[in-house]
Amino acid sequence: MSDSLERLYQAVIAARDLDPATSRTARLFQRGPSKMAKKLAEEAIEVVIDAVNGKTDAVVRESADLLYNLTVLWAAAGVKPEDVWREMERREDLLGIAEKMPKAVKAPKTAPGKLPKTTPTPALRRRIVALEGHSIQKRR
Ligand SMILES: N=c1c2ncn([C@@H]3O[C@H](COP(=O)(O)OP(=O)(O)OP(=O)(O)O)[C@@H](O)[C@H]3O)c2ncn1[C@@H]1O[C@H](COP(=O)(O)O)[C@@H](O)[C@H]1O
């Protein structure tokens, strides 16, 4: 899938300078990030609605539109697909998809004039168990 997305990203970059009258992508670049963001949000909502209504084929089609609009926004934001793949690999290295840390219980009172402790006390940290075949690596 990443190959398709990378080819699409290159096509979007190439289309950026085409005539907006004939190229939707060029038109999106001409109208700017807020229009791109609006289209991306619209597609995301269309995916959600079709998924909730069990319209699998429509979810596939709208997901392709969503990915197109996402690559356009990436290009406008100066994000490359490999930037996203690197982040996903970083999270995978951290034992699968990074889970949200548990909500910290009420932190101990801070003495007046002292800075509150920002890192959760050891008791608040969730015990990390390495996934099978993974070694626990320090967060990069
Ligand atoms: N992959 C896509 C792609 N996927 C989806 N879309 C467009 O995004 C639309 C989906 O968004 P909407 O549902 O909002 O479409 P719409 O409601 O018809 O459009 P609006 O009313 O919002 O204007 C589709 O109808 C397509 O026109 C795409 N448009 C272009 N590409 C590729 O982008 C590259 C550049 O193409 P041009 O933009 O045509 O130069 C080429 O490689 C294309 O294949």
Automatic annotation (TrEMBL):
InterPro entries: HisE, PRib-ATP_PPHydrolase-like
UniProt key word Amino-acid biosynthesis: yes
Biological process terms in GO annotation: L-histidine biosynthetic process
Record region (Disordered): 101-123
Subcellular location: Cytoplasm
GO annotation, cellular component aspect: cytoplasm
EC number(s) from the headed UniProt entry: 3.6.1.31
One Pfam family per UniProt: PRA-PH
One Gene Ontology MF term: ATP binding
Name this polypeptide is given: Phosphoribosyl-ATP pyrophosphatase
